Amino acid sequence: MEPILTVNDVKLEIEGKPILKGVNLVVNKGEIHAVLGPNGAGKSTLASLVMGINGLKEPTGGEIVFKGNLLNGLGIDERANLGITLAWQDPARFEGITVEEYLKLSGRKNPELDTLECLELVGLDCTYLNRFVDETLSGGERKRVELASVLAMRPELAILDEPDSGIDFVSMEDIANMIKVMRDRGTTVLMITHREEIAEIADRATLMCDGKVVQTGSPKEVGQKFKTMCVKCEVRNPELVGGKGEN
Amino acid sequence: MKTKGALDSIGKKFVQIGLPKELFVKNKFNLLVDRNKVVVRYPAPGVRSEVIETPTGVKTKVYIEPGTKLEEPVVLCFGAAETTEVQTTEGEIVVGEGADVKFQVYGAMAEGIKLKHKNKLKVRVEKNAKFEFLDLHYNGEETFVELETETDAYIGENAYFRSVFKQTRGRAGKVKIVLKAQVDRKGVAVFETKMIGKRDDEIYVEDVIHLNGEESRGISKSRIIAVDQTKATFVGETYGNAPRCRGHIDCSEVIRGKDVVVKAVPVVVVNDETAKVTHEAAIGSIDKKQLETLMARGLSEDEAVDVIVQGMLR
Questions:
Q1: CA-to-CA distance for A234 and A28, rounded, in angstroms?
Q2: How many angstroms separate the CA of residue A132 from the nearest CA in chain B?
Q3: Would you say residue A241 lies in a domain?
Q4: Is A196:A164 a contact under the CB 8 Å cutoff?
Q5: For residue A132, what are the domain limits?
Q6: For residue A21, is pLDDT > 90?
Q7: What are the residues facing B189 on neighbouring strands?
Q8: What does the pLDDT look like over B115-153, one tens digit per residue?
Q9: What ranges do the domains of chain B cover?
Q10: Which CATH number is A46's domain given?
Q11: Is B174:B198 a contact under the CB 8 Å cutoff?
Q12: What is the separation of C-alpha B177 from the centre of its chain, rounded to a whole number of angstroms?
C-alpha cells in the first residue's frame, strides 16, 4: 500500500500545554481511514494541523508529509492545491452564495463536475441548488452541502471532521454510502469520529487518546479497544494509554 | 436617430463602469437622463409620468394607476456621462391601490467624472399595493461623487415597500443616504443598503422607520464593506408605535484595512407594550472560518475575500 499522508512524531503545544504528544499515523492511498477517540483526544487538532486551519500551520515538533511534500508551514490554499481538503464539523454559513455556486467554487478544477449528482449523493435534491448556504439551511442540510462540496472538489485527500454530527440516524446510511463513493472515485478519506459505529465503514482505523495514538488496525479491533478503553477512561485508567490520562 | 446616437455614446461610457450592455443594445429604458437632459422616455403600461428638465437636473412625477401589475420592471437611469458641477433630481411616486410594480433605477456616473448629486424622493404606496425600488449605483474607480439622497415614504394599509440601495462597483465617494418611512396598519417597509467604500470614501446611511399602524412591519438591513481609509456610519432607527408591530435592524459591516473607521448606531424605541423591535449589529474583519473554508477548496485569500464580500453585497 502506498502512503499518501504520513504524520511523523507530531507534537503540538498550545500556551505550554501539550495537545499532541508524538502522533504517528500513516494513511494509505485509496483507503477510508477513521481516527477514533473520545472528546479531547486531539483528533480534530490533528485534522486542523494537516489542513493548516485554526492558525495551526506548523506542529511544535515532527512533520506531516503529503505525497512527498512537507506540509509544515504551508498555507491552507497551498495544501488545498496539493489535493487536500477538509469538511468542517460545524461548517461556515455564507450570505448571498447559493448551494450551486458553492459547489461550483469547490469543483472549479474538476472537469467532470456534476453539481446535481453531488447533492443527490448526500440525499438532497435539485431544489437545493438555488438555496443559499446561509442560516436558512438547517444544521443537517448545511452539513450535507459541505460533504457535497467535497465530492464536487474531488480531492486526493478529504478530511471529514465528524461527518455524522448533525445528521439523523436514518440518514447516516446516505452519508456512509457517500463516503464510500468518494473513496471509489479515488479520494482517500481521513475520517474523524468519536463513534465506533461510524468508524466501521473504514478500511482501517486509528484510536487516539490524550494526544497520542493508541492503536491502528481494523475498525473492528480498534472499535473494540475504544469501547473497552473509553469506559475505563471515564474512571481514569491512564495505564491503558501508557501514560498519564487527562484529569 | 438623434436618440440612438446619444444612447450609443452614453451607453459606451456607462457599460464601461459595469451597467449591463443589454440595457443599451435593446434600449430597455423607460426613462434615461444624462445630467439634466432626457435622452430616452418610453411609457410603461399603467404608469403616468411627468418629467421636467431643470437647469441642474430633472423633476419627475410618477403615478401608477390602481391595480396595475407589471411583470417586467420599469427601468430608469439617472446618470452623468460627463463632469458637471451639480446634478439635482427630485421625484414623487404614487403607487395606486392594489398595484404591484418594481422600479429598477440605475445611477451611473462615468469613469473619471466629478460631481455633486442631490436627490429627493417622495413615495406613497397606497392600500394593498406592492412597490419595489431597486436603486443600483455604478461609479468608475476614478469617479468621485458627493451624493446626498433622501427618501420619504408612506406605506399604506397592508401595502409593501422595499427599497434597495446598492453600490458595489467603483468608488462610493462621499455618500449620505437617508431613508424614512411611515408605515400604516399591516404595512411593510424593507430598507436594504449594500455598499463598498474604498480609499478615503465616506459613507453615511440613516434608516428611520416609524411603525405607526397595528401589526405593521419594518426591516432595516445594511451591509457595508469598508476598505483602505473608508469612514462608514450606519444609523438605524425604528420606532414601534402601534400594537403588535414588529421591527428589526440588521447591520453588518466588514472592515478591510488598518485605517478604516466604522460605526453602527441602532436606535430602538417602543411606545406600545405589545410592540417589539430588535436589532443585531456586527462589525469586524472577514469571518475566519468562512475564509478558511474557501481556502480549503483551493481559493487564494484574496479570491476568498472577494467571494465572501460579493455574497454579502448581493
A1: 32
A2: 10
A3: no
A4: no
A5: 3-236
A6: yes
A7: B161, B218
A8: 999 999 999 999 999 999 999 999 999 999 999 999 999
A9: 2-312
A10: 3.40.50.300
A11: no
A12: 9
* B74/A243 Cα distance (integer angstroms): 74
> Would residue A150 count as lying in a domain?
yes
User: Chain A residues with CB inside 8 Å of B309's CB?
Assistant: none
Q: Strand, helix or coil at B309?
A: helix
Supply the ipTM of this predicted assembly.
Answer: 0.92
C-alpha cell at B149: 439622497
Nearest-Cα distance to chain A for B247, in Å, is 19
Residues A222, A193 contacting (CB under 8 angstroms): no
Question: Helix (H) and strand (E) counts for chain B?
Answer: 4, 19
Question: Which residue in chain A is spatially nearest to B289 when comparing CA positions?
Answer: A92
DSSP codes joined into one string, B168-181: EES---EEEEEEEE
Residue in chain B lying closest to A105 (CA): B297
Q: Does A94 touch chain B (CB under 8 A)?
A: yes
Residue A245 and residue A214: Cα distance in Å, rounded?
12
**Residue A247: inside a domain:** no
User: How far off is chain B from A108, nearest CA to CA, in Å?
Assistant: 9
A137 occurs within a structural domain = yes
Q: Which of A86, A93, A109 sits opposite B296 (nearest CB)?
A: A86
Based on the structure, what is the number of domains in chain A? 1
User: How many residues appear in chain A?
Assistant: 247
* Chain-chain contact of A53 with B296 (C-beta, under 8 angstroms): yes
